[in-house]
Write a structure and sequence with these properties.
It is built from five helices and five strands. The strands form two sheets. A three-stranded antiparallel β-sheet has the order 1-2-5, with no helix packed on it. The chain is mainly α. It has three domains: about 35 residues, no CATH class; about 30 residues, no CATH class; about 50 residues. The longest helix has 24 residues.
């Protein structure tokens, strides 16, 4: 009576009760029989090796917005989380910007648009996106004025 075998792994390797690891006999496509083959001790084929799973990446995939503590812009945290964090009221969520940071970005855009305008006045040829940036100059200035930070020309 042949020794009993345990369940096969993905590669088809089974372990007998006596501890031997074997690939069972099978039939080839042409009808010939492939004999049972012993597998050396310690060998693990590539298909049986568990792939590495990054815990943060798995958490990101399993939650709708990337992490369990996501707070949509404009919403407040629950009372339990307020106690832990020590903050109350509005919380900066994803998509909300610091007004000072936005002002710095706008000042930078205004400066770049003015430089492009000077180049255009000198007669340089500009790309379409550069011309569009010059046309947005007034919009940038209005946004900066709306922020009420007084960050007009910080060169």
């Amino acid at each position: 009576m042949p020794p009993k075998k345990t369940a096969a792994a993905a590669s088809g390797i089974t372990t007998t009760r006596s501890g031997d690891r074997v690939i069972e006999a099978s039939v080839r496509a042409d009808g010939s029989i492939r004999p049972e083959r012993k597998v050396r001790q310690g060998y693990t084929p590539a298909e049986d090796v568990a792939s590495y799973k990054n815990e943060r990446a798995e958490t990101f995939r399993s939650h709708q917005y990337g992490h369990k503590d996501y707070v949509p812009p404009g919403l407040t945290l629950s009372t339990e989380k307020k106690k832990k964090g020590g903050e109350g009221g509005q919380v900066m969520g994803v998509g909300q910007e610091d007004p000072e940071k936005k002002a710095r970005v706008l000042v930078k855009k205004i400066k770049a648009a003015k430089q492009l305008k000077e180049r255009m006045e000198k007669g340089d040829k500009l790309a379409a996106n550069q011309v569009a940036k010059i046309q947005m100059l007034e919009t940038f200035e209005k946004e900066l004025a709306a922020l009420n930070l007084g960050g007009e020309d910080k060169e």
